[in-house]
Amino acid sequence: MTLPACSRLLGVPRFSIWVATPPMNLLLLSRLLGTLGAQRWGSGPMGRRGLFLGALCWALGAAHPLQAAPTEAPASEAHAVNTHATDAHAANTHATSGQTQLLWLGQSAVRLTTPGGKVILVDPFLTQNPKTPPPYKNLEALGKIDLILVTHAHGDHLGDGPELAKKRHIPLIGSAGLDQSLVDLGVLPAELAPRMDKSGTITPLGEGIRITMVHAEHSSALEWLNPVTHKTETHVGGEPVGFIIEVENGFKVWIMGDTGLFSDMKFIADYYRPDLVLMPIGGHYTMDPKDAAYAVRYWIHPRLVLPYHYGTFPVLTGTPEEFIRAIGPSRTKVLEAKPGDTLTF
Asked: Where are the alpha helices (DSSP H) in the chain?
């Protein structure tokens, strides 16, 4: 029996709304309900009912004390260790002992290493990225790559993806429209550009790693340099997307890509329950710090969030400091990193 049920049966329903109000202690409230119920019914023909239900409510309170929600994340939650890679070898160490590693390479480029040692490269804008750490301008410094994910067709996300896919003979997965255009234009062969779309879930690295494509609120035109005319052409780039990546130990990462606010952020967070969210905060083309903070406070409530896609170009003026101030007191831990840092979870 729930405490609201006790209050209704005892004839004191006005107390039921206290149940969800921290820091009211459930033990105290249930005993109060039991006492009031016994007083209300104890002297009349319903006395036995009042005494029985009063005792039941006392027992309920003793068994289920209610604690106020903590303002800080519990110590048992995922802990991020921030290390700055001084060379390519140090940065390419695979996750071990059930850990996930994330190397941020500036803008939206990240290399995710799963607990099982699989390596996923996301939005590999590297050689032309002013924030890429110098060692990674040489694409060989990335080490092993098993899969490339691209959130949309813009050059600061597609970046070096096609070149890496061809050199390493690994698939590049974007939305169906983007991958189809890459095939039609001869940029990639069909076997390296498998099509998928939003809401689809795939397991290209084995059943232990699940990748789901989700919505993003942005655009996705593909600019292509025609090798014959030497002119830039604009082609279909498919839908902009984000990715939910679940690794072998159940840890989930939501890579938002470029996006503005949209109310289904709440649905995505409620349904997939990501542990870590990579969130753009630069503004102009995406959410700014105030927008991103709104999503964190009212829709997503993540345990961990890494702000990215800021400071790469002059128009991307948002900063992590503004983001943290806009969030205010929160259970969410904001991870501060700089390009070249590796975070371990």
From this structure: 3-9, 26-41, 47-63, 88-91, 155-158, 161-168, 176-184, 264-272, 289-294, 320-327
Identify the CATH number of the domain in which residue 322 sits: 3.60.15.10
CB of 240 closer than 8 Å to CB of 220? yes
The neighbouring-strand residues paired with 255 are: 243, 278
> 102 by DSSP, 3-state: which?
strand
Place of tokens 């996300």: 157
Residue whose tokens read 């140090």 = 90
Checking DSSP bridges between strand 304-308 and strand 276-280, what pairing results, if any?
parallel
Full pLDDT tens readout for the chain, 345 residues:
444 444 444 444 333 333 333 333 444 444 444 444 444 444 454 445 544 544 454 444 444 433 333 333 333 344 455 554 444 444 444 444 579 999 999 999 999 999 999 999 999 999 999 999 999 999 999 999 999 999 999 999 999 999 999 999 999 999 999 999 999 999 999 999 999 999 999 999 999 999 999 999 999 999 999 999 999 999 999 999 999 999 999 999 999 999 999 999 999 999 999 999 999 999 999 999 999 999 999 999 999 999 999 999 999 999 999 999 999 999 999 999 999 999 999
CA end-to-end distance (rounded Å), the chain: 40
Q: How far apart are CA 87 and CA 135, in angstroms?
A: 7
Q: From CA 241, how far away is CA 258, in angstroms rounded?
A: 8
CB-based contact 321:293 (threshold 8 Å): no
| Residue 142 structural domain | 81-344
Placement of tokens 């690295």 in the chain = 205
The verdict on residue 304 lying in a domain is yes
Residues 137 and 224 in one domain: yes
* 12 and 134 fall within a common domain: no
**248, part of any domain:** yes
8 A C-beta contact, residue 85 and residue 133: yes
Statement to judge: residues 214 and 286 lie in one domain: yes
The H helix count followed by the E strand count for the chain is 10, 16
With CA atoms as reference, report the closest residue to 305 among 265, 333, 269.
Answer: 333
